[in-house]
Here is the input.
Amino acid sequence: MTTRKVLTLTLVRNIADEVLMGLKKRGFGEGKWNGFGGKVEPGETIPQAAARELTEECGLRAHYLTKVGLLDFEFLNDPVIHEVHVFETREYSGTVVETEEMSPKWYKIEDIPFNEMWLDDPIWFPWYLKGGPQFYGYFLYKGFDTILKQELKSTDLPPTTTIFESVKSQQA
Ligand SMILES: COc1nc(N)nc2c1ncn2[C@H]1C[C@H](O)[C@@H](COP(=O)(O)OP(=O)(O)OP(=O)(O)O)O1
Here is the structure.
């Protein structure tokens, strides 16, 4: 029987259209560049978890988060499926800082370090970058270096946005 671990992954874009990536310093995905995120804790909504993880991992507070996609990762002989909710923000406050978990760096789109990221990233990232409806992806991994099955499709859902009024009012 499988169980689902619900996780978030947030991509931050600046006015120069760069993407903030984080080099994971410990734990799952150590040594890989990724967006910012982690487990949804009891009592949190998924966007609240995404906002919290973003602040914990790179210091930024999102003014809003737009849900751009959903990714399911299954690992052969592992009953735990990673259900990863992917968000984007382009409005935030605070200063980018290195944390215990992540070393952040802005990347121009053409310089995103796909060869130092999860194998699935070069597959779905271009869908994210081109915009449009939310995407859905499924990846079956054998270990962490082989993808046995993959599916990526567009859904009919438009991107949905959660605005964090408390952050906005703190700015006023
Ligand atoms: C191969 O599967 C994955 N690919 C990609 N590109 N990203 C993934 C995959 N599986 C999970 N992720 C994302 C989702 C999260 O943003 C992180 C994992 O978060 P982490 O393990 O750090 O989350 P927590 O369990 O909350 O960890 P801490 O309690 O240590 O913060 O990677």
The radius of gyration is 15 Å. The pocket of LXYW25GO is lined by residues 7-9, 27-29, 34, 37-39, 73, 82, 84, 118, 120-121, 141 (CB under 6 Å).
